[in-house]
Design brief:
The protein is α/β, with parallel strands linked by helices and about 150 residues long. Helix content is about 45%, strand content about 10%.
């Protein structure tokens, strides 16, 4: 994994592309600590960013999702967002899980992240006509609360 990520990150950098690896439950690299250890093993010189899945953070990290954002601030290339429950790898519709989104969105703002925040509800594609507008409304309301706090 180290050799492959090092080669891939360097090739991407030579092309002007920044890549992010996603810690994924059940995979070789599951948690943020493992991502940071990989970066340290690469000498932190390879431009290997992180795709941060906030549902995974809530479900499987020791720290709250907002703290996870702070731990990798400056390294975040992509953000996946969905609701989740502790200890369960299931991407839930907003409001069906346990995540308090205003503090998480505030953490992204404080970290200076200005990239995409991609809703990841792959099991809901058959009801996208309902899920998409609801997700937009939910996240806009959470963002207003984050800014107001």
């Amino acid at each position: 994994l180290e050799r492959a990520c090092d080669a891939l990150a360097r090739a991407a950098a030579a092309c002007g592309v920044r890549i992010g690896i996603e810690p994924e439950p059940g995979m070789l690299l599951e948690r943020i600590d493992e991502y940071l250890a990989l970066c340290a093993a690469l000498g932190d010189s390879a431009p290997l960013g992180v795709t941060l899945d906030l549902g995974h953070c809530h479900s499987f990290e020791d720290d709250p999702a907002g703290e996870c954002v702070h731990r990798v601030a400056g390294r975040i290339v992509n953000v996946h967002i969905e609701d989740a429950r502790r200890g369960v790898h299931e991407h839930l519709d907003f409001g069906d899980g346990e995540i308090a989104f205003p503090p998480v969105l505030a953490a992204l703002r404080a970290a200076g992240y200005r990239g995409l925040v991609c809703v990841e509800l792959s099991r809901h594609s058959h009801v996208a006509h309902v899920t998409v507008p609801r997700a937009i409304g939910y996240l806009r309301a959470a963002e207003r609360q984050a800014v107001a706090a």
